[in-house]
Design a protein that fits this description.
Blueprint lengths: L20 H4 L12 H4 L4 H8 L5 E4 L6 H11 L3 E6 L5 H16 L4 E6 L6 H5 L2 H6 L3 E6 L3 H4 L2 H5 L2 E4 L5 H15 L6 H11 L3 H14 L8 H15 L4 H15 L3 H13 L4 H16 L5 H16 L5 H13 L5 H15 L15 H5 L39 H19 L5
Parallel strand pairs: 1-4, 1-5, 2-3, 3-4
Length: 440
């Protein structure tokens, strides 16, 4: 077990006076880390790793500016390990090979190594595979940092050899603490409460963004008695307009877009989409909102809407801004003029509520799987009617819900768009059910 002093062995040297504020305030001790209490509190995973002196391979997944690099450095220091940094944006297999050779030489000298890969999701499969034998053999501890979902962006083989820790955006209290530390270090004028609230909103959970903005603000207003909203606007006006996601206006605008689509007003929907993009909304987030609208407000009344919004998201990924924004505009107009139905949305919510509150009803015997002789002998699958062998490929009168729920209706299509035809088809099938003999 490592001693408390060992937690801070190999402290990173203090940043030079001319370094950016974010670098000068980078924690050099574990107790200086702001946020991530779900990982660093007593008994939590990274705290245990710090205190044990043993560092398993891991992936740190979280948004920008939440401390991924800082935690990796502190972990290396806590275990007395040499720290090698690779940026997946710039590094290649040659750099990986050099890191492996360096780790091997250090191992012969009795020294452990941490290889930290920033933006690991940018490595291709071959580059990620290059780590596998060395992680498996324990040559070094691998720590990858990513802002993307590792389930999709990290090879399954590397993922299976690493523990994934999810880092969270810093909350307002965390960001307020960083403002306090920055003010003390720079000996800057105090921030008014309103200015601090706007600055924290501008940071949007990103410590680096907060500190860079604060450093610019303090430098431009060193002689002021107080840093208020006027100075904030003068120094960071455009950035604030385009990045402030913490206020009611931002969320009200999202709400206006959604309601304009639901209300079938393409002109208003285009307007609110343009307002959001101009205010700094990530177009990828806008695409996700449109995909949600396609499922929630159009549903099966026009099943093409979901596909069109997915296509718009893919087009934006390929083209970026501003060209890709036209595909989002096309999607929002289509959603606005499409026939509306929330029938699936209502049905899904009703089913989820029932499953949450209801007991775990047994699967009816005729619906159970029967891959073995024993299970068949117990009656699993007995009496099941194979729909394809029935007239019209429909087993009229068959029941698929658990006992006690056989008359339950969740999905009721609306008389609009494709759902009007769906309703007609359901009516035909239910009429066949009424005419069929009742199951015994």
């Amino acid at each position: 077990m490592a001693t408390q002093d060992a937690l801070f062995a190999e402290e990173a040297p203090a940043a030079p006076a001319g370094a950016p504020l974010a670098e000068r305030l980078r924690p050099r001790h574990l107790d200086e880390v702001v946020g991530q209490r779900h990982l660093l509190a007593a008994g939590r995973p990274l705290r245990v790793a710090f205190e044990s002196g043993r560092l398993p391979s891991m992936i740190l997944w979280g948004p920008p500016g939440v401390g991924k690099t800082t935690l990796a450095r502190l972990l290396a220091g806590a275990t007395g390990s040499h720290f090698i940094v690779l940026s997946a944006v710039l590094a290649g297999v040659k750099d990986i090979r050099e890191a492996v050779e360096q780790a091997a030489a250090l191992r012969k000298a009795g020294r452990s190594t941490v290889v930290f890969v920033d933006e690991v999701h940018r490595f291709n499969k071959a580059q990620q595979d290059a780590f596998l034998p060395h992680v498996e053999g324990g040559l070094f501890s691998f720590v990858g940092a990513t802002t993307e979902n590792p389930s999709f962006e990290v090879n399954s083989a590397l993922l299976s050899r690493s523990t994934v820790h999810v880092l969270k955006s810093l909350d307002d209290a965390d960001l307020g603490e960083l403002v306090r530390r920055a003010q003390a270090l720079l000996q800057a004028p105090p921030l008014s409460a309103a200015a601090q609230e706007r600055l924290v909103a501008h940071a949007d959970g990103d410590a680096r963004r907060l500190l860079n903005a604060y450093e610019n603000l303090a430098a431009a207003n060193s002689g002021a008695a107080e840093l208020g909203e006027a100075q904030l606007e003068a120094t960071l006006g455009e950035l604030l307009r385009r990045g402030d996601k913490g206020g009611d206006v931002y969320y009200d605008t999202i709400s206006a877009l959604h309601k304009a689509v639901r209300g079938s007003d393409p002109d208003a929907a285009l307007y609110w989409l343009a307002r959001l993009l101009d205010a700094g909304m990530d177009p990828r987030y806008a695409a996700r909102r449109l995909i949600r609208m396609a499922s929630e407000d159009i549903g099966l009344a026009d099943a093409r809407a979901l596909r069109l919004t997915l296509d718009a998201a893919e087009v934006y990924e390929r083209l970026g801004s501003p060209e890709g924004e036209l595909a989002l505009a096309q999607a929002v107009v289509y959603l606005a003029i499409a026939p509306k139905s929330n029938a699936v949305y209502k049905a899904w919510n009703a089913v989820r509520e029932l499953v949450r509150s209801d007991g775990s009803r047994p699967v009816p015997m005729h619906l159970r799987n029967a891959p073995t002789k024993l299970m068949k002998g117990l009656g699993h699958g007995a009496g099941y009617r194979y729909a394809h062998d029935e007239p019209g490929a429909y087993a009229a009168g068959e029941r698929y819900l658990p006992e006690g729920l056989t008359q339950q209706r969740f999905y009721e299509p609306v008389p609009r768009g494709l759902e009007q035809r769906i309703a007609e088809r359901l009516g035909e099938l239910r009429a066949l059910d009424e005419q069929a003999p009742r199951p015994r």
